[in-house]
Design a protein that fits this description.
Distance between the termini: 56 Å
Number of domains: 2
Structural class: mainly alpha
CATH class of the largest domain: Mainly Alpha
CATH topology of the largest domain: Four Helix Bundle (Hemerythrin (Met), subunit A)
Largest sheet: none
Length: 314
Amino acid sequence: MVVCSIESDVCEQERLSCRARKLLNQEIEFISNPCFGDPDAESDILDNSDISSHRAPFDETRPAGSSGSSTTISRLCNAEVLSAEEERVLFRRLNYLKFKANQHRSQLDPEWVTENELDLIEQLLHQAELVRDEILRRNMRLIVSIVKKCTTTGVSFDELFSDGCLTLLKAIDKFDYARGFRFSTYAYHAISNYAYRKIANRRKERTRYKQLPPERSMEEAGAVKNPLMGTATWDELSELLNESIHTLDEREQVIVKSRFALGKHRKILTFQKLADQLGISKERVRQLEQRAVAKLRAVAEGTRLELIRDLVCE
């Protein structure tokens, strides 16, 4: 019994040490403020409950598969815009919670740590996440207003909306409320600049695609034959892809044609080669290929399209 108790204690300590190391490896980004060191800071900042209860932004406001329809937009915009005082209260609370979490974390010793210490830090970070979500939720109307103006045939509402949310979250982490500026102004410029850069880059990519000779991707040095496909399988998949490829955008078509050798020569272009041609990263090419294949699967359900993922090689 004594041995079992000792082993249990060792396992528990290992579990706590693992949690502690995870917290120590986690980046806690916050904007400090001199008032955080005041004796009454905790009661002044955390006991102030003049902001509506925190809710996760996407659970209510953005159903799965949403698009730029009027119903969806109205749901995204149903939260009240933050006033200047509400912004100040929320950002002060957000940064103070992360300041306190970082303060407690700096005293952690992974080899001698208690569950109460870890629970306290994790609870502070969880509360900070709730405040961050509230700021995001209350700025949904701003994101939608910018995205609606920037949406083009080359960049969809959903794509810009997703990017806008990520840009806003980054802006929240970097905003210093003590400078006296409105966060909405800061966020507007951040989201707008990102959206315009994305649209400009997409236009450059489209221009680059149009300049590629039709069969260039099949004849480039660095293209390799796929030894796994027999003639009959390749013919079938080529026919299937040719029938369905109109459902893809121009960039996806270029990648699919190059990756699945839709042309006169049975050669496959590598991710790196495509990345060099299109001026994007290798990982981005991989992501776009996966997205294109998912679209084709939806169009050609019940065919042999599922073989594609096994037949493509780097």
